[in-house]
Specification:
Radius of gyration: 19 Å
Number of strands: 14
Strand content: 15-25%
Oligomer: single chain
CATH class of one domain: Alpha Beta
CATH superfamily of one domain: NAD(P)-binding Rossmann-like Domain
CATH topology of one domain: Rossmann fold
Structural class: alpha/beta
Order of helices and strands: EHEEHEEHEEHEEEHEEHEEHH
Low-confidence stretches: none
Largest sheet: 6 strands, parallel
Length: about 280
């Protein structure tokens, strides 16, 4: 395979990808800043591009997601392959139940626009590429619980704060961060399926049931019953990704069961709270 470079290896997904690949020879973390990369300065045969600014870092979206991707591409050898981790935020949000890779692209915010523009940069070159449009990640990464709603809800339950859910319930496609990391690790060594865009999402799951599982785990750990308050509002639907194209190439996605994901997250937060003396 040669040399494999992982960007964003200190972040939520990138660290999990490095963990999945670190025992392979030639795997390295990119530790600099993307915008500082000089043309033709990198020596690798494949790059897994996980680095980028998240939605709440609005001032960094252009610099990290767009300009950083451009500088990375300029720094790579011509034949270096790229796996780029994009987002379902590039799609047009509508009332359809699921989104295929052919669904219209019309990001609703600056984050989605930055990811779409980065995709265009990746596809414009001559090197082989794969773009994975991911659903929302959750669960415990490498000593990182993420900042998505399930981890926030668990922390609130530990702190004896109630969590509000909207009725009606919605079906999400949350994807466990380590499941995506393992899937990416598999693609690193695949010879077929390149120059394609793939959706990758977790299984359809009830948000209410997932948060109830989080509450039950906290009750098991702490002994008090967390409070979940349900109020009318929200939307009866949420766009989910159709991953059938990916499964035709890579086979059925291996999902970690929710009970295991919630248990790992609960033990991590319990240790963190005790270490902080809370």
């Amino acid at each position: 395979m040669g040399k494999i470079l992982i960007t964003g290896a200190a972040g939520y997904l990138g660290a999990a990808v490095f963990e999945a690949l670190k025992l392979r020879p030639g795997v390295a973390r990119f530790t600099g800043r993307l915008e500082d990369i000089q043309p033709a300065a990198l020596d690798c045969d494949l790059v897994v591009h996980c680095a980028g600014a998240l939605r709440h870092r609005t001032d960094d979206l252009q610099r990290c997601n767009v300009d950083g991707t451009r500088r990375l591409l300029e720094g790579l050898p011509p034949a270096c392959r790229m796996i780029y981790i994009s987002s379902k935020s590039v799609y047009l949000s509508n009332d359809s139940e699921s989104l295929t890779e052919d669904a219209p692209l019309a990001p609703f915010d600056a984050y989605g626009k930055s990811k779409q523009f980065a995709e265009q940069l990746v596809m414009a070159g001559d090197r082989p590429w794969i773009i994975l449009r991911s659903g929302t990640l959750f669960g415990l990464g490498v000593d990182n619980p993420g900042i998505t709603f399930p981890s926030k809800a668990m922390r609130d339950f530990f702190d004896r704060r109630e969590v509000t859910l909207f009725d009606p319930d919605v079906i999400h496609d949350y994807l466990y961060v380590r499941d995506l990391a393992m899937l990416i690790a598999g693609f690193v060594f695949r010879k077929e399926g390149w120059n394609e865009v793939y959706n990758v999402a977790g299984p359809p799951r009830s948000l209410h049931q997932l948060i109830q599982a989080v509450a039950d785990r906290v009750e098991m750990i702490q002994g008090h019953k967390p409070v979940v308050r349900k109020v009318p509002g929200g939307t009866p639907w949420i766009n989910r990704l159709d991953s059938s194209k990916l499964e035709k190439v890579a086979g059925a996605i291996q999902y970690t069961d929710d009970a295991s994901v919630v248990a790992l997250l609960g033990e991590y937060l319990k240790r963190s709270i005790r270490a902080a003396g809370c």
